[in-house]
From TrEMBL, chains A, B:
NCBIfam families: PRK04342.1-1 (NF003332). This is Type 2 DNA topoisomerase 6 subunit A. Relaxes both positive and negative superturns and exhibits a strong decatenase activity. It comes from Halorubrum alkaliphilum. Its EC number is 5.6.2.2. Residues 189-355 form the Topoisomerase 6 subunit A/Spo11 TOPRIM domain. The gene is top6A.
Amino acid sequence: MTTESDARDELIDLAADFYDQFAGGEIPEMTLPTRTKSNIVYDEESGVWTYGDRTSTRSANSVGGARKLLKAAYTIEFLADQLEEDRSSTLRELYYLSESWDNTEAQFNSQDESNDLVEDLEIVTGVTREDFHMRPEESGATLMGPLKLREQTRRGEREIHCQEDVGEGGYQIPNNPDMIEFLDHDIEFALAVETGGMRDRLVENGFDEAYDCLVIHLKGQPARATRRITKRVHDELDVPILVFADGDPWSYRIYGSVAYGSIKSAHLSTYLATPEARYVGIQPEDIVEYDLPSDPLADSDINALESELEDPRFQTDYWEEQIELQLDIGKKSEQQSLASRGLDFVTDTYLPERLDEMGVL
Amino acid sequence: MTTESDARDELIDLAADFYDQFAGGEIPEMTLPTRTKSNIVYDEESGVWTYGDRTSTRSANSVGGARKLLKAAYTIEFLADQLEEDRSSTLRELYYLSESWDNTEAQFNSQDESNDLVEDLEIVTGVTREDFHMRPEESGATLMGPLKLREQTRRGEREIHCQEDVGEGGYQIPNNPDMIEFLDHDIEFALAVETGGMRDRLVENGFDEAYDCLVIHLKGQPARATRRITKRVHDELDVPILVFADGDPWSYRIYGSVAYGSIKSAHLSTYLATPEARYVGIQPEDIVEYDLPSDPLADSDINALESELEDPRFQTDYWEEQIELQLDIGKKSEQQSLASRGLDFVTDTYLPERLDEMGVL
């Protein structure tokens, strides 16, 4: 976590670079890593995918480029003020707020433009969006399990135990999970669960209590806040992270983004990704072994599986075997399809067997 | 709220009806209100839209009809057992679980089929899905405001104050909000807010504290649990409910479903709808008055507005005026576009002015 004044300093430094370039008679420019799949490389040390050596330059040597740097300068001023006042805002608010700027050339034409600029600033300064106090539009996950934490809110500190002090809905993590401090826990492992139906099944069946498991609800493709808290649980509490999702290519991508990060946020991999996270299921081999109710793969599923075979994140023996099996059987199954064996099958049989196989239990 | 044994009795009674019809030499049948827009009528007494007098009959006089009643009988048995064991399940689990039934004719062919059947059972028995212990797939809203409640969980009671005992994410309401008892409150009014970005803005700006406002996050089209808690807050705490959404036809539908219920759940209007709920904005007249950043109406927006003019729920002077104004100006604006006047405009100016106009403050 970067402090507010550090984040502010990084921004001011960037603006100062533009100033110095001007003052030195140079055309101002900003250099960024090229953000395409071919420029993602595996970082042995951290175990996640990050940008490679190829870079792109934004220069004021054209009207378009000059306008981009002007917008960057206005945005830097807004963010620096926001940090000084200890305020925060959403990406969408920033886009709208630009309409109030005095220089119409600095106003954004679309939200894609302002979103991209904030990502550029993250990359160049090495400060995360959260530390600029930019909030996401959508809220993150809920937690349920033997974890006691302290959240620093604008209204003071709150100490919350994620089983004893919450309702069945669990603890709603805040937009910036770095406002949380872990106080105490009895977690043996954390299970990051894709769907709300399965999250509720685990909680109803008392799986978190029986196995001292922290249930993290991913809510489909997980928000940054959810990936961040997952990483912090792993790194700070030293517990295994297991991802439990549907048995289809879109869910493998969810696992991929938890474990290895995404192309879009490769600059944040060391902040968001948990390379030690492992995949519990649903595996294609489970569809066969447990004869799960399934749907045939659609063309889009097949294309997605084939593209995963090319994806550096999935180039392991395990994933190649599973994905080829799935293409072979032509089927996909949802995690809730385990209910075809009864409502307790997932907690009494499936998860204990899988976790035992994986050496977690 | 129906008790578990009442819900179970209603289901058993329905199965007993089939039995009696058989025993009396009649062909078993089940009669339901016809569920189309033309069969929705305004109920003066409750102020919400409910089904009219037209009915449809499911009879075992064809193979298809007999199969439908067989599936109903199996589902009734499953639900009755679930209630007896104090368990619960999702609609998707029910669909998958039917694969374990001994009679393959009773198994569902698609989830639409099992979903529709559960709705039919709700209508015929007068018991809500929640009281059958069917959980939704997706979780409901969060609450933030001066409300202390007690939630009955499977792990005992939890007393939670929705400002003092929660983090910035707020209190996550459980799937069945009837497990909540309101203990104490200082709420002057409740604001049901469409987007996460605006919900977070209100909480960051301390609007809930400054105005003793309960902020309910609708998360787009609200889940049943969210509409239910909104109604209970209104009816039991006697506080005004205000809906704050984007200024487009899809958001007016969100308001419509909170206030008047939907065609799909017209049998639940008296349980879910809050006809006293009023619309704060964004109103088309706000787009003009505050010169808000806007997007042009797409063809689909225009069609939706025109269909709202035909919708009985929107046939009031207020809505006709607003919708016609919007068609005239050809623009729509999001609630976060208020940020074009600065981040505090919504809490310092817009909401206080609108709430004063409406007589809430």
